[in-house]
Specification:
The protein has 525 residues and is of the alpha/beta class. The chain has helices at residues 2-6, 19-28, 31-34, 40-48, 65-85, 99-108, 119-157, 162-181, 188-191, 197-200, 210-234, 254-273, 291-294, 311-322, 360-365, 371-377, 381-385, 392-409, 428-438, 448-458, 462-492; strands at 89-93, 111-116, 278-282, 301-309, 326-334, 497-504, 515-521.
Length: 525
């Protein structure tokens, strides 16, 4: 109840007098408590229907645990949306090092354009994608060895007629290869000779009847086919380069040789026309960006963004609503403190496009958060709740530094940043001197004794600073709610949107900015 929560503050002084009630109010207005989010499970079920999800591998071998978690969850959702909309092209805005882009292309065979404003990120994405292909080939090799060992174990348990077994299984796998070729899955030719056939050819025959032998062979062949297909599901042909292997199997018939030759030629032809399904591009994206100027073969597609920074998240939604080719969007924003606000300053800029507010409802009210509130929205309550406390000492250093800069140098605001100076400093004096150099301020007129005097003057207020920051952490989800609901309301105001919603994608302890804004356009748009 609003009246109850308002009593957390003194009516006259407006000071906080009931911290417990303040915390309850903050929880009450958090996104998880408001009931406006759509569960991820419901979204996936609606998108997939009765179809089975693709067998996948976890990317944790080549990403840290946080990024692996984000890419694994978001890529599955993006693939389901793409399938639902019948599209194969994805545009990853603010793609950075290309973690999501490369995984979408290799795991789900989607054609992905990753756009980032930093050329160093784009160059790094190219190099990383090259290395990632090697990982995929290594995974393929391990899959071959696993199939080989499994088939050996089964063969040792129950010896069968070698020639009939090898011929039957080879024929069935070749049929599978022809079927998969139509889907661009040509790498089965590399898997065929490594399924244990060489070892099986040397086994002794037994006295089973012909009917029993064929029944057992068909069961074994079916199991092997399923295992081969499971590997193929996670290793698209375009994701790996062809490599030759020595064939120690029984001599191949002429028909099989021809089939393999055709398969190999088709694979090479396809790769020559499209050597990579992931294309990193360098460009600065704004609300007015014309995608056709960046992507020459733009077609019906969806737009995604994993932790798009500041105004980029808002501009992603604006581009989505404006461009008819973009049929869906899935955007996870971050860095709220970098958002531009229309009503933060009194200066009128009629032609500027702002990051906040987006929806007409908040525009009409002239709503403003302010930078301090947006900074607070970036804090991670869930991490603090499990014991990952705020860096109180570094925050204290930063606060005292600001006092020194204002009182000694008369500087209230600077475009320069201190950055991660605290972790490199051996003491408060060292921290101040390093920081002043970064800010291009002369530290020669500031003796060590003067620096330490400031430290001693405010040291007793460190606990006070910690308490204040804890209150900011508690309030953080409420401010994030306002920003996310503004984006959702903007989509609800558009006439060409069939469905839009907020979905919690990630574990907030692993990835605090865990909410995605998702929307699908009307089929007629």
């Amino acid at each position: 109840d609003d009246d109850i929560f308002s009593s957390a503050f003194c009516e006259n002084s407006e000071k906080l007098i009931d911290v417990h009630l303040f915390a309850l109010a903050a929880k009450y207005y958090s996104l998880s408590n408001l009931g406006v989010c759509t569960p991820l499970e419901d979204v996936l079920e609606a998108l997939k229907g009765d179809s089975e999800g693709a067998t996948g591998i976890k990317p944790d071998e080549f990403m840290n645990s946080k990024k692996s978690h984000e890419v694994q969850v978001m890529s599955e959702l993006v693939n389901d949306i793409a399938n639902y909309c019948g599209i194969k092209q994805v545009i990853d805005i603010g793609s950075g090092k290309g973690y999501l882009s490369s995984f979408l292309s290799m795991q789900y065979n989607l054609k992905v354009y990753g756009i980032d404003s930093s050329s160093s990120n784009t160059d790094g994405a190219h190099e990383r994608n090259r290395k990632l292909k090697k990982h995929w080939r290594a995974y393929q090799s391990r899959g071959k060895e696993n199939l080989k060992s499994q088939s050996l174990e089964k063969a040792n348990d129950k010896p069968v007629e070698s020639e009939i077994n090898c011929k039957t299984i080879n024929e069935e796998l070749l049929n599978n290869a022809n079927s998969l070729q139509n889907q661009g899955q040509a790498i089965i030719q590399d898997l065929l000779p490594s399924c244990g056939f060489t070892e099986m050819a040397t086994l002794e025959t037994n006295t089973e009847g012909e009917a029993d032998l064929m029944t057992g062979t068909q069961s074994h062949e079916t199991k092997l086919s399923e295992e081969v297909l499971a590997i193929l599901d996670v290793l698209p042909a375009d994701a790996v380069e062809d490599f030759s292997s020595s064939h120690n199997c029984v001599e191949l018939c002429e028909e099989e040789k021809v089939r393999r030759k055709i398969t190999s030629l088709q694979t090479k032809a396809r790769k020559s026309s499209e050597s990579n399904l992931y294309f990193p591009l360098t460009s600065c994206i704004t609300a007015e960006t014309e995608l056709n100027d960046i992507i020459t073969d733009l077609e019906d597609c969806m737009m995604v963004g994993l932790h798009t920074c500041g105004d980029l998240a808002a501009n992603t939604l604006r581009i989505f609503t404006a461009k008819p080719e973009i049929k869906a969007v899935c955007s996870v924003g971050c860095c709220y403190h970098l958002l531009s606000e229309q009503f933060e300053n009194q200066e009128e800029c009629h032609d500027q496009i702002w990051g906040f507010p987006m929806c007409q409802y908040l525009k009409d009210k002239g709503w403003c958060c302010g930078r301090n509130a947006r900074m607070s929205a970036c804090l991670a309550l869930e991490r603090v709740a499990v014991g990952q406390m705020l860096p109180t000492e570094s925050l204290f250093y930063r606060a005292v530094l600001q006092v020194i800069i204002e009182e000694i140098y008369g500087v209230a605001k600077s475009d320069r940043h201190v950055g991660k100076t605290f972790s490199k400093s051996s003491s408060f004096v060292d921290y101040v001197r390093r920081s002043l150099k970064k800010l291009e301020l002369d530290d020669s007129k500031l003796p060590d004794s003067c620096i330490m005097d400031y430290y001693e003057k405010y040291k007793h207020r460190m606990n006070e600073l910690e308490a204040f920051n804890m209150l900011k952490v508690v309030l953080a989800p409420c401010i994030e709610v306002l920003i996310l609901l503004d984006r959702l309301c903007y989509l609800k105001e558009q006439e060409n949107i069939a469905w839009s919603g907020l979905v919690k994608l990630f574990d907030p302890v692993k990835s605090p900015r865990c909410y995605a804004v998702i929307a699908l356009k009307n089929s007629s748009c």
